[in-house]
TrEMBL record:
SUPFAM superfamilies for this protein: ADC-like, Formate dehydrogenase/DMSO reductase, domains 1-3
Residue span, 4Fe-4S Mo/W bis-MGD-type domain: 3-56
CDD domains xref list: MopB_CT_Fdh-Nap-like (cd00508)
Alphabetized PANTHER family for the sequence: NADH-QUINONE OXIDOREDUCTASE SUBUNIT G, RESPIRATORY NITRATE REDUCTASE
Domain of life: Bacteria
SMART domains tied to this protein: Molybdop_Fe4S4 (SM00926)
Stated name of the protein: Molybdopterin oxidoreductase family protein
Chain ranges passing through the membrane: none
Length: 702
């Protein structure tokens, strides 16, 4: 008889679909897991094929750089010794902050917590940040500003079908979270309206009652224009504004200049569509705005999200059932990854490193003096940009910036200029291939730990199979390095995940993201627990129903005004470039490009462009087209399609080499969140001929 499957969750995105893993002779099979209500057994192709990487294509031995510059297999002791020497040498030569740490939103809570602690009390460097800065930091900053707290969705996904109207801004769940699409299908089946805002007619937009296609980077103007109409039509909820918010007068004044005709010119969205959006949103009993990377990955992402939050507050669509603003987080642990201390300015429990009380509390849990803790460091792009100059050595865990960072040719150059690079990864990613030492680590099905999904629901990832010989966990890596770099301190780095979680509970107690009432046992029994969950609480599925998390309990309007993208089109670069995802590939592609069935479904990069633009450039469908920006040149086959604005091209960012979209992107940062502007820059197109000549990265000014 078959043994019962191990109940766990998918290794990839923040939906964290439940799945079962059943042992077979050869390895593990994915079987549906019906008890987890979020996906009820449904998986996308990535989840379905995730066990493929447990076998071939992965790393199974540490690798070290030999005298001739190649990477050769080595034992764990040698590899860890070399890393300890490399990091120590940089600090001896140039000071503590000469060592950087770069983490990832795919790491479990336990790993993210341990990595932040490792940076602060073993390396004692301020230079730690993570790839979530590329993902959710703008929505997080806007949420903190408005509500005093940042949890992606303030309500469970199951509330969506019960709302009257949902505006999805720059989000394409049909490709990025397929099993979540049913919440929107059910919304419409219940008579609710779906409005999608995307420069492309995506498979998500196809299902909408109304699709607005603004030009990239114009979401702020769009949201301001909608609020202008709300005010002009007397659709504000004065009672709600008076009872539960502050700052309305200034915000109202700020939107008055945003006349619909003016907004139509800035965004390209016709006035009647603006009016229809306001009508559907305001006439529904309850309504929601959900944003994802479209409006957030902009150098004005914080203000853009703030403008959408303003719309919810002014119409009383916040802190009420089936209403509110939410952000759809991205990585598997995009939410938890930013709560427990791998972010440059944070300590566990979503505490601030600059808050003396927070420092005292966390230093107490860690058994060090508060003064020993460094201050906040650089943000992710700024850290990558400082490599080889102020930061001489880097420990990287859970990211592949050679493919995924903006202005990637420059970032690749910075990584190459390091004195020492150590990478812990599952596979030999493009970034790991540059390292002096590569450590092969365990994968999701081989380890236990917690992940916090887009709903703020803390989930349990369970070990279903033993890792192959030669592979160790990230927690073992940190333990081994602590032992070498600060003998004695390794006691603070246990390798058993539950032990780390027990400490995380204490460290987060009393913070905004309070996990102190959560235990592995409770998660297992309940299929997940929503934070905040202080001792004795059963968790908090819905936030803000009575009060916001600000000191006075009121939500704060943000009096934002419009501004252009960091880089506007001009005569030399007349076309907008935007970037994003395809269904069958995940992120930098490090994992999914190694899985045969996913590669067949999405074999390579492309440039999506409208037939009018294709005709002007002189390329036909399938022919190579060169895309040039001020950062460099990329070449990929043209995909001619009417599903995109004629002034805009789209490239997915999952590939390295000459089709790498991030060769082109602009690293302009949001002043508050330090999020780069992945979603908008100016480019020029050229037919590249059958040879497709031109190296990616050429033209990078350095
Ligand atoms: N298949 C797949 N799924 C994934 C991932 C993956 O790599 N592959 N990654 C996961 C992660 S980490 C994340 S963050 C999420 C991201 O999930 P999404 O945010 O849904 O993904 P994107 O494709 O980055 O962007 C969404 C849409 O924004 C549109 N867009 C581009 N520019 C603009 C703009 O200026 N304004 C507006 N309004 N829209 C714009 C794009 O056309 C795109 O359709 O997906 C998660 N799920
Ligand atoms: N142009 C453009 N660029 C973008 C975006 C965009 O929309 N457009 N989106 C941005 C966003 S939202 C994101 S989230 C980033 C993501 O981009 P990356 O940060 O590059 O994310 P991944 O490709 O998921 O990289 C994770 C790496 O860690 C490894 N890994 C997985 N699990 C573990 C683990 O448990 N431990 C360790 N040590 N390693 C592990 C994987 O094999 C992989 O090599 O890309 C950003 N870049
Ligand atoms: S939607 Fe996300 S969590 Fe669900 S199976 Fe696909 S990648 Fe995994
Ligand atoms: Mo992301």
């Amino acid at each position: 008889m078959d043994a019962a499957p191990t109940l766990t969750h998918c290794p990839y995105c923040s939906l964290q679909c439940g799945m079962g893993l059943r042992r077979t002779g050869a390895g593990l099979d994915v079987v549906p897991r019906e008890d987890f209500e979020v996906n009820r057994g449904a998986l996308c192709g990535k989840g379905q094929s995730a066990t493929a990487l447990l076998g071939a294509g992965r790393l199974t031995s540490p690798l070290v750089r030999d005298g001739r510059g190649g990477l050769v297999a080595a034992g764990w002791d040698e590899a860890l010794d070399r890393i300890a020497r490399g990091l120590a040498a940089a600090q001896e030569g140039y000071g503590r902050d000469a060592v950087g740490v770069f983490g990832g939103g795919g790491l479990t809570n336990e790993k993210a917590y341990a990595l932040g602690k490792f940076a602060r009390i073993v390396l004692r460097t301020s230079q730690i940040d993570y790839n979530g800065r590329f993902c959710m930091s703008s929505a997080a900053a806007a949420g903190n500003r408005a509500f005093g707290m940042d949890r992606g969705l303030p309500f469970p996904l199951a509330d969506i079908p019960r709302s009257g109207c949902v505006i999805l801004v720059g989000s394409n769940p049909a490709d990025t979270m397929p099993p979540a699409l049913r919440y929107f299908t059910e919304l419409r089946a219940n008579g609710g309206k779906l409005i999608v805002i995307d420069p492309r007619r995506t498979r998500t937009a196809e299902q909408a009652d109304l699709h607005l296609a603004p030009r990239p980077g114009s979401d702020l103007a769009l949201a301001l224009g909608l609020l202008h109409l709300v005010v002009a039509q007397g659709r504000t909820d004065e009672e709600f504004i008076a009872a539960r918010t502050t700052g309305w007068e200034e915000t109202r004044a700020a939107v008055m200049a945003h006349w619909p005709e003016h907004v139509e010119r800035t965004t390209g969205v016709p006035v009647p569509q603006l009016r229809e959006t306001v009508r559907l949103f305001c006439e529904a009993q309850s309504s929601m705005v959900l944003t994802a990377r479209g409006p957030e990955q902009q150098a004005k992402g914080v203000d853009t999200v703030g403008a959408w939050i303003n719309l919810c507050l002014a119409t009383g669509r916040m802190g009420r059932p089936y209403s509110g603003y939410g952000c759809l987080t991205g990585q598997g642990n995009g939410q938890g990854g930013r709560e427990h201390g791998q972010k440059a300015d944070q300590l566990p429990g979503y505490r601030l490193l600059t808050d003396p009380e927070a420092r005292r509390h966390v230093a107490g849990v860690w058994g060090v003096e508060p003064d020993e803790l460094p201050g906040p460091g650089r943000s992710a792009y700024e850290l990558l940009d400082a490599l080889g100059t102020e930061v001489r050595a880097l420990l990287l865990m859970g990211s592949n910036p050679v493919v995924s960072a903006p202005r990637a040719a420059h970032v690749e150059g910075r990584l190459r200029s390091l004195d020492f690079l150590a990478v812990a990864d599952v596979v030999l990613s493009e970034t790991a291939a540059l390292a002096d030492v590569v450590l092969p680590v365990t994968q999701w099905a081989e380890e236990t730990g917690t992940m916090t999904s887009l709903e703020g629901r803390v989930l349990l990832r369970r070990r279903a199979i033993d890792p192959p010989e030669g592979v160790r966990g990230d927690l073992d890596v940190l333990h081994g390095l602590a032992q070498r770099l600060a003998p004695g301190r390794e006691k603070g780095f246990p390798t058993a995940p539950e032990e780390v979680f027990e400490e995380l509970r204490r460290a987060s107690a009393g913070g905004k993201a309070d996990y102190s009432g959560i235990s592995y046992g409770q998660i297992a029994a309940e299929g997940g627990v929503f934070w905040p969950c202080p001792q004795g609480s059963a968790g908090t599925p819905r936030l803000f129903l009575d009060r916001f998390a600000t000191p006075d309990g009121r939500a704060r309007f943000a009096p934002v005004t419009d501004r252009p993208a960091a880089e506007e089109t001009d005569a030399r670069y007349p076309v907008w470039l935007t970037t994003g995802r395809v269904l069958a590939q995940y992120q930098s592609g490090a994992q999914t490009r190694r899985i045969a069935e996913l590669n067949e479904a999405a074999p390579g990069p492309y440039v999506q462009l409208h037939p009018e633009l294709a005709a002007r450039v002189g390329v036909a469908d399938g022919e190579p087209v060169a895309v040039l920006s001020r950062r460099g040149r990329a070449v990929a086959p043209a995909r001619v399609s009417r599903d995109i604005r004629p002034d805009t091209v789209f490239m997915p960012f999952h590939w390295a080499g000459e089709g790498r979209a991030n060769t082109l992107t602009n690293p302009a940062l949001d002043p508050v969140s330090r999020m780069p502007e992945f979603k908008v820059c100016a480019v020029r197109l050229e037919a590249a001929g059958a040879s497709g000549a031109g190296a990616s990265g050429a033209g990078d000014a350095g």
